[in-house]
Amino acid sequence: MLKECEILVVGAGPAGSSAAMAAAEGGARTLLIDRKKEIGTPVQCGEVVGETLLKKLKLKLPPGALAAKLDHTTFLLDRRVKLTSREPYWKAVTLERKIFDKALAARAAEAGAMVHADARLTDIKMDGDRVVQATIIHQGVESKVHPKVIVAADGVHSTLARLMNVELFTEKAMAKGIEYEMVSSRRLPSGMQIFLEPEVGLGYGWVIPKGPRHANVGLAAIGLEGSRRDRLQEWLTTNPLLMDLFDVDKVLEVKTGDAPLPGFLGGPRRGNVLFAGDAAGQTLAFVGEGIAPSYACGMGAGAVAAAAVRQNDMSRLDCYANAIEDLLGSELAEGGDIKDNILNVWMDESIPAGDRTVLCGLLMSEVLFPEEVEEARALLSMPQRAMVNAMKGALAKRKARATVSALLLR
What we know:
This protein is α+β, with helices and mostly antiparallel strands.
């Protein structure tokens, strides 16, 4: 039988564990549940986090959670252009999510939260817009708890949202992804590679090193139809750069997941429920960055929930949006703007598909500003050597820590 709680946190990913830790540190009796038998599995993301966000949040990685340091990001655009950015924003680390997530849940327990794996939310009872009772199956035994506040950190397919009959996203606002953890034929570069090309669709592919000779290799796209595995297999066996590095008979792990685009319908608070992390679309979807933003938003949700409980004032939950802004600044809003600009270019059918992916990559890498799109379109009509030279000149003028070269793979 689960013990009663003042704050119930559903989902023990980065958002849920940080929320439970902050709520417990704020003096609230906190229960963190996760439906998985082992917190952190299965992995459903690329496992990469930007260094700047780690520093901004002062998030110390648990021992063993660091898989690799990535000192640059390379964008491979329509198999015609290779752009490598060494700006601080594009430096990152690759995690071992199994270790990372379990360690965050342990930190929540150490802070005083009750933590239970194999505990699944199955039903709720509501009074108006408030959830007043939650039914949980814990290791096969049904329990009922009566929290004052709930933090819903149970992912893009949130069980709590479904039970509340709340729609946070539409299918068109969700990217479907799949990746393999693979062994490479030779030593990999010490940076992440992002592929934008018509073969991937409205999304991107990636190679994220986890060691000298193994990496997460995958793709995610909006509107991805059919078998994800077939789509990835086809890409791996037709992209010349990937064919040169990876053998589809050397796969260590298969990981699938869906990622929300930034934003949510109507805001992340519903009555006494605060949605956090992927459940609230709190990601930098233009690069698929969800781990650090989820951690920050969970911290905000947990702190605000604890204050509301401590002061017995549910209007304090309105402070959630301000708490997120205090922790992340304008990161989420700016990420949403970049996403919108990328989508606007992608949907412009007057631009050839290959050119669209080049422009989207330039916007994603932030070497192209939205007001420069028309000028950049003119560059793409040039012969390839002239186009690349013009891009080099633009990067030099901007004093960007980036290099560009031609790819001859079309």
